[in-house]
Write a structure and sequence with these properties.
alpha+beta, Aminopeptidase, 2 domains, 14-stranded mixed sheet, 11 helices, 14 strands, 41% helix, 28% strand
């Protein structure tokens, strides 16, 4: 491995960013916007431990590893906990030695939970493989809708009927793929926070850095990383919305939510159909709905992509501490996920606890 230089994200020069984009363009992996320099720079503005290791081959950058550095040199993928695609940005040549790279970064280890499948540098360290659910609209929305009609005719028929009923009973249904009104983003975040509390989950938007990150990315306009707020209106009232990141070919779905007052119309499902239609019209070929099983994902998906969870580590006390903090929780979650009845009980328990907190 050649020289490694560690920078804060804002210290990257335009030449560095161009090399980064060129490497991603040559990759066989989908052009997920979470893997672009703009996402790393946005995280750097809200997370003081954000760093980028620049790997050199001679004088030219040959690779990049974005990460966050914690106590005792414990490393984590950039934006861990919210980023839906993680890993190093490398060329097609021989991969560097993972241990040597971690040492050059001053890291005892590097945790990840949505490692990209093409990451040959870190995949050997994965402890679990998960499915990320995707919608393929490469051949156009009409083809996708025909596939849905053939595979799940009742689902599509029912969803479209609810969309028509929403239009008749509430107001003309209108969809905006890229809404710029800041009030709409605030509405989405309020819906999502209420959903987290309602289901007994930790409210991500109660964490200041996540709220600031989303706010910053909402104004990001780069060809391969554009913050995209999509809104479904009935009349002039927003009934469902989604905020995600878009490249020229991938729309990474991130924060979807809807107004519970209109739940009987399934506005979240209608929103996803209209997102798929609008994205296809823009030339986007894939919507990545991320990992985590959900009924709506099963209904909408055309396929799955593998993502990985685990940690690369160097021997030492820092890596041992990182393992002790991560593994018991990860193994417990895996145990529950593998047992549907236990998983169902866990969901009911979370919702019950949420109701008690609200009462």
């Amino acid at each position: 491995m050649g020289r490694v230089r560690v920078l804060r994200p804002h210290e990257l020069g335009e030449g560095d960013r161009e090399h980064w984009r060129e490497l991603r363009a040559k990759s066989q992996a989908p052009r997920n916007p979470f893997m672009e320099p703009e996402f790393t720079e946005a995280v750097g503005r809200v997370r003081p431990g954000a760093r980028v290791a620049v790997l050199y081959d001679g004088r030219e950058p040959a690779g990049f590893l974005p990460y966050e550095r914690g106590p005792l040199g414990q490393g984590r993928a950039i934006g861990l906990g919210v980023s839906d695609c993680q890993g190093a940005v490398l060329g097609q040549g021989p991969a560097p030695d993972a241990g040597a790279l971690l040492r050059a970064c001053g890291l005892s280890g590097l945790s990840f939970d949505n490692l990209e499948a093409e990451q040959r540098l870190f995949v050997p360290y994965a402890a679990e493989e998960h499915a990320a659910y995707v919608i393929d609209v490469e051949q156009g929305y009409e083809v996708y809708e025909r596939q849905l009609r053939a595979r799940s005719p009742k689902f599509l028929r029912t969803t479209l009927a609810k969309e028509r009923r929403l239009g008749r009973q509430v107001g003309v249904v209108r969809f905006v793929l890229d809404e710029r009104d800041p009030a709409a983003l605030r509405t989405l975040m309020a819906w999502k926070s209420a959903q987290y509390r309602r289901t007994g989950r930790r409210d991500r938007f109660a964490q200041e850095w996540i709220a600031r990150l989303v706010g910053g990315l909402a104004g990001t306009r780069a060809p391969e990383c554009t913050g995209t707020l999509s809104v479904l209106y009935a009349g002039e009232r927003p009934v469902a919305a989604h905020f995600g990141l878009r490249s020229a070919t991938v729309l990474s779905c991130w924060f979807p939510a809807y107004d519970p007052e209109f739940a009987k119309y399934s506005p979240g499902l209608v929103l996803h159909l209209r997102m798929a239609e609008a994205a296809a019209a823009e030339g986007v070929g894939m919507l990545d709905m991320g990992r985590g099983a959900a009924e709506y994902k099963d209904s909408l998906k055309t396929g799955e992509l593998p993502v990985y969870e685990g940690a690369a580590a160097r021997p030492g006390p820092g890596a041992a501490l990182q393992w002790l903090r991560r593994e018991p929780t990860r193994r417990t979650q895996g145990f529950v996920r593998a047992r549907p009845r236990l998983a169902s009980l866990a969901v009911r328990t979370l919702r019950g606890a949420a109701r008690l907190r609200r009462s």
